[in-house]
Design brief:
alpha+beta, five-stranded antiparallel beta sheet, four-stranded antiparallel beta sheet, elongated, about 30% helix, 3 helices
Length: about 280
């Protein structure tokens, strides 16, 4: 009888020998550390998605755009405020200068030796659109002593655009000054009094523009002692006489759109007789 040896279903392989450099504990720890490393790699490899990156870039761009717009608005507001402040300062300086110059008005009379223009006349032209007088205060000739002929002229630069210009000329010769102001002299047919025809004021490139872009601007003159004794009267023009060579005050009024302005400058030369400075 032949006995056959059964082959086992599972073959037992000999266990891997453990060297002296490795122990079962160390082997298990290595396996655990390897698994932990794999888990760590899986955790660290997870980053931002494309949508999240695009969203963050869009939000950053919007914030930068809002910051840029805010800076531009603030810069524009600062420039506008500075321009208005400069305009206010310029207006205040101009008003102060006009007041000072008119307050420095000097009574001045000229005696003409021209046989065609005889007589002694007060140097003053006071009309709604032109004011001429002699002053000791100048914007151009401040470094020199003496008198200057001051001419404030109102001209129409374009339809609806009025300008106020200033011209100053040093007074060197009375005869020259007289011909600069007077064109001719006629007599009033009713009273026989001499009527002076003045030289017209025309704008020059050397003139100083004090005000521009005005809808309307004009001068008027205060008479505190009218002939009829009706009280103070603002006159459109002033005619000098021996009793009242100069007005009591000069008023400058202007209008630009909805804005209106007014400057009233008192004239104190009425206390000084014109004969003290007759030339």
């Amino acid at each position: 009888m032949v006995v056959r040896r059964k082959t086992p279903l599972f073959t037992r392989f000999p266990a891997q020998p453990i060297t002296r450099f490795q122990s079962p504990t160390n082997h298990q720890s290595q396996i655990g550390s390897a698994d932990h490393g794999r888990e760590t790699v899986r955790t660290n490899t997870r980053g931002f998605t494309l949508f999240e990156v695009l969203l963050s870039l869009t939000l950053t761009g919007l914030l930068m755009l809002a910051l840029l717009i805010g800076m531009r608005v603030a810069n524009r507001a600062w420039r506008t405020g500075e321009a208005r402040l400069r305009q206010v300062h310029a207006t205040a300086e101009r008003s102060a200068f006009v007041v000072q110059q008119i307050a420095s008005l000097v009574p001045y009379r000229v005696t003409s030796n021209d046989p065609h223009l005889p007589g002694t006349f007060t140097v003053l032209e006071a009309s709604p659109t032109c004011l001429r007088f002699v002053s000791s205060y100048s914007s151009v000739y401040r470094g020199r002593t003496g008198l200057v002929l001051v001419e404030y002229g109102i001209v129409e630069a374009s339809p609806g655009n009025m300008e106020l210009a200033l011209r100053e000329t040093p007074v060197r010769d009375s005869e020259v000054l007289f011909h600069m102001l007077v064109r001719s002299i006629t007599n009033d047919p009713e009273t026989g009094d001499p009527v002076i025809v003045r030289q017209p004021f025309s704008l020059r490139t050397t003139d100083l523009l004090l005000m521009s872009g005005l809808d309307d601007v004009w001068f008027s003159y205060l008479d505190l002692h009218p002939v009829k004794g009706t009280g103070a009267v603002w006159r459109e023009a002033w005619r000098s006489s021996d009793e009242a060579p100069y007005p009591d005050a000069i008023r400058l009024r202007w209008r630009r759109g909805n804005q209106t302005g007014e400057e009233v400058i008192p004239v104190c030369v009425k206390l000084i007789t014109s004969s003290t400075v007759t030339q």
